[in-house]
């Protein structure tokens, strides 16, 4: 659905970014004793504003964590000038994608961070199965959208 | 303290997402597009993050309790069951369509792209309606 744009292969920047993500995951464990899964962090933070749900007792750091995620690109852009980003502007497609990501990560108990980074680091077979499944389905979806139906 | 350190943790995570390219859907979709404009960069993100976390967890989990909370809460479930696989499959399809997983959707917010403003609220609604579906499946 996103038209093919070539992106530059950036092993060093990606490795450095990955190391920072890992450092954050370790910070969340040593400070709060929790898995740094963005799905879980967000759901815990959402429980604050949804009256029907039981409030997560530790919503405070979760909201602050999300605020950090949102401020991060603004801070990076102070040093780099701009941030490279190409997002599809197909509103219906993106809304459908968001809905699937929200429902899927909730039913599957985690996303790229919870299962991907933290789960694999704990050598969890459950997380490995989740990662293999979402990678496979994501690659298949891109293949269908870009090479079959386009 | 929890708020300050929660913010700092999120900031480091978010800077990592931005520097690594993970917050750029074009890069994510190219990573997934093995038979097209393949960009393997994101394997380095996952590799670097997982390796650091693997080493860090082994050191940190020797403590009796975390610094700002009373206990460590690690997932206890080990079952590879239907909700896990079905959820991961749905997530994969959504990730493939949009190029956003939950973390990058948050870091993309201040850039205010049209697609982000469609994706993010839909994802939050998805979190809310996913919960009763999960409860039904695990009952």
Explain the overall architecture.
The complex is a heterodimer of chains A (150) and B (139). Chain A is mainly alpha-helical. Chain A has one domain. In chain A, 69% of the residues lie in helices and 0% in strands. The radius of gyration of chain A is 17 Å and the shape is globular. The termini of chain A are close together. With 139 residues, chain B is mainly alpha-helical. Chain B has one domain (2-138). Chain B has helices at residues 2-20, 25-32, 41-60, 82-98, 102-108, 114-138. Chain B is globular and about 50 Å long. In chain B, 54% of the residues are buried. Chains A and B meet through helix 1, helix 2, helix 3, helix 4 and helix 5 of A and helix 1, helix 2, helix 3, helix 4 and helix 5 of B.
Task: Describe this protein with a few key phrases.
heterodimer; A: 150 residues; mainly alpha; 6 helices; 69% helix; 0% strand; globular; B: 139 residues
Could you outline the blueprint of secondary structure elements for this entry?
The complex is a heterodimer of chains A (150) and B (139).
Chain A lengths: L10 H22 L5 H9 L12 H22 L10 H17 L4 H10 L3 H24 L2
Helix pairs in contact in A: 2-3, 5-6
Chain B lengths: L1 H19 L4 H8 L8 H20 L21 H17 L3 H7 L5 H25 L1
Helix pairs in contact in B: 2-4, 5-6
Summarize the structure.
The complex is a heterodimer of chains A (150) and B (139). By secondary structure, chain A is mainly alpha-helical.
